[in-house]
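Q: Could you fold this chain for me?
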Amino acid sequence: MLLLNEEQVVTSIRTALDRIAKGTRHRNRRVALYAEREFQEAAIFTSQDLPDKDGRVRRRAIGRSGPPAVKPVRGRARVGSEGLLAFVASQQKDAWPKIFMNHPGPDSLRAKSAPAGEIVIITDFIGSGSRVRSMLDKFWAVPTIRSWMSRKLIKFRVIAAAATESGLASVRKHRMRPETTAEWIAPTVSWNTSPRLYFAWTKLIDNNGPAEGRGCGRYGFENVAALIAFSYRIPNNTPAMVHCSRDGWRALFDGPAPPELHGLFGVRPVAEVVENAAADNGIHMGRELTEEDRLTILVLTLLRGRWHKGSETALSSRTGLPVPTLMDILRQALQNGLIVGSGRLTDKGYAFLASGKALQGSKPIIATNQEAYYPETLRVPR
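A: Sure. Below is the predicted structure, expressed as structure tokens.
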């Protein structure tokens, strides 16, 4: 099975978006970001019959704000992966404010000063492709979008952290022909992949777990039988024995993965991450500090001066912490008056570091041979 944690998903989507932002393709037009989620509405935007400049009545999409990034479906208590995706969209908009727009409405898309030239749907996983296709259909249902596409004013793209081969093919065949990419390809229970594994998996699936659940049969939604799990959820495109708890059968896990499975996803305890990063950077902290204080001291000690675009990537590399966690710590530090907007420490911030006994600049001791080696003879160079 392909096992991915939250940090891997966020990094893969952010990397793909950074690649877009650094390209020359969008020099004069912006990029609109939308998190993939389930929509109950018939169309993404609201449209009205309005007269144009010549007095002819036309169907026109209206509104400066687009659909909310997160909106739980009625009858479901838990928000899906769209919460994580919405966070990525928000962070990318803040990192590249002149390029990305975060869930804009049609009025923002057609703005005279900086109109959008591309709409990007981001998602963590494309299984069968049906939900992404449904979202594309909601865009296609808007007359204004169809008009823009016919005049080649806007294009669509889908960026996924992971996908099945069949899911990618399905999305790419949509009438809007979106450019669709994924960093990881999830394996499936398929004869073409491996006949031996195919027989082993089908025997397991046919004889274990519930026959149906979460809107699908034994082989998952639309019989995709994807072999993938995220540290925060298991898609229903996986076999029912993996994702569905029913009739006395227990799924691999419900909701986020329990702590005892974090090692499988490469998720280290926060305390371990902080301890290793502090040791690597020569930072000493008092043992009486809380985990929150240790995190703050580590990040602020390594912040080193003014904040600029790309600082979060370098800081993430040095601390071993995912970027979303870093941004939460910095926002809290700003709110508490430990830093200013440019990232510089305030007097209160320096006092906080001093009280935590964070000593920056001492280097970690690297073990060497205790007995020095001296050559007894010298060779003549050849």
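A (continued): The longest strand covers residues 116-126.
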